[in-house]
Amino acid sequence: VLLIDYSLGRLDAALEEINRIEDSEFPYDQSHEALGRIRDLFKDCRKRIVQLPSDKALDIVKAMCGEVLTTLFRYLPLIGFILRSTNVRNAFELYGPLLRLARQIVSPTTKLVLSSEWRMYSPFTYLRIPALPEFVLIGFPAPESANPLLLPLAGHELGHTVWGTRAFGTQYRQQIEQHVINGVETNFQEYNRLFGSDNLIAGEAQNNIFVRRRIAVPAAWALRQAEEYFCDFLGLALFDKAYLHAFAYLVSPAPAGERAVFYPNTIRRIDALLTAADVFKEKAPDAYVAEEGFRREFRELFQDQSDPAPAEREKRFFVALADSAADSVVARLISDAEKVRLDSAIPPLAVQAKTDVLNSFKFEVPAQQATLSSVVNAAWDAYHDATFWPDATADQKNHTLKELALKTIEVIEIEQITKPSE
Amino acid sequence: MQSAAQADLASFDSNVPLLAIEAANEIDELVVGRNVPLNAVRQLTEVLQHSFPSDSGNGQNYFVDSGSVAVFSEAFNGVSGTGAISSLEQLRERVRAFKAALHVAKPASNEGEIEQLKNLRALCLALASSAASFRNSIYEAHPPHPFEA
After folding, report:
1. How far is it, in rounded angstroms, from Cα A251 to Cα A232?
2. How many Å apart are CA A126 and CA A137, to the nearest integer?
3. Is the pLDDT of residue B5 over 60?
4. Do A352 and A360 meet the contact criterion of CB atoms below 8 Å apart?
5. What ipTM was predicted for this assembly?
6. Which residues pair with residue A259 across a beta bridge?
7. Size of interface A-B (CB pairs under 8 A)
8. Scanning A152, A238, A302, B48, which has the fewest C-beta atoms within 10 Å of its C-beta?
9. Do A219 and B67 touch (CB under 8 A)?
10. 151-170 of A, contacting B, C-beta below 8 A
């Protein structure tokens, strides 16, 4: 009975908090709707607990209450995320254009919550939330949440949703796992040194259940690395070089310490991005310009994070297998990211469009008839051009540039709203 | 999000642990002789079918991902009386038997059936636990925030 009392108490507290938040002023309906979905989920959890017969076996009660507690753990940060989406620190100007982009590349019914995050200094998304299947949640680090120059990184976060809706994980899993198994075969002696009790015979890794159980986690790391690569490529495909600049601004050189094994290490990400730029350029010769000098300077901004310590031999072995498996699908991932852009009828960056925006910016006037990509690419070009507004101080230039970019994005939204329907 | 028919045991896109707990709960109702709709049991059978498609009987050797192998064998190895699984063939055989038992589950009418249902219930709970552990094991390798305890 206590287990049930405690579970219901926790759920009621969470529901009460949601009721309080629902009284806030929401800048757009979808944020409010997401909160309502979480409220319904908690109510459903409550119903499940209340309906347990009084003679229910203890192990079932424990499992059910444990799962409900896990649900609370999982959804509590989302409630905070939704609450912060109402904060005026966010650049609400970005919401409409980003929603339109999300609907172009994901689905016409996609919903968006744009918010700010305090946990990390990088953009952030919550992946494949069972209660919010058609929602995309994008959070920018709180101090940068009104910085339009970082908008291209939303392309990466949208990529996670695309990865889920197009079931790329299922499509890539077999190839990646086969690569991991081949890696075990190739490093057969090392494997046997580390895991002698698995009795691995050469050529039998595929059919050895102990090997298969052991590689399950590194294969999942590799699949997550592949997803990260894909999201980078989609961000680049959508926002061209501005994605690289935004990525460098937030990530370079790399945080100190041990890498997360479900991300490719930094230099591999950079090299893969530059490769993707070359591939994209084949179909869009005027775009994705990454000349030699830029490539060198860009690459020099970064450094790898540490691999697991040498004493962690088993982890190092599996991380190397995961890295290699993720790298083996890079060409296919680049092609899939490009296909998503083409399927969504999103054109590559037009040089003239970017020049038009830059010309308006020179006069400190928001541009008209711009695209998101042309705005952020023009803004980054101006940011890096020491001769742009030569009389302005760095602070003045930075401030004015962000304001102009935001205003231009607002103009894009107004132009869309007032556009005669076709 | 994936539906149960598309999900596999190691899937992050659907809540396999909750599904397995609900299936255990439905079977628990059968143990005490209460007849209830077996929706979760049916969905769990679909997840197993999707995870181990080679069991469809047409002789084709389908791909089975290692995550599903790990989750299922971990669950079976954790339940007393089932014996540890030591080969993929043995694993497939256990999956077949488990699915068949889920398929014919009905309220118990004698001691033997009660025992069978209790075993089935224990396996569903073990599956819930191993699916949840597998999901966590992917991410626990990430270094925590230095100030986080």
Report:
1. 13
2. 6
3. no
4. no
5. 0.89
6. none
7. 105
8. A302
9. yes
10. 164, 167, 169-170
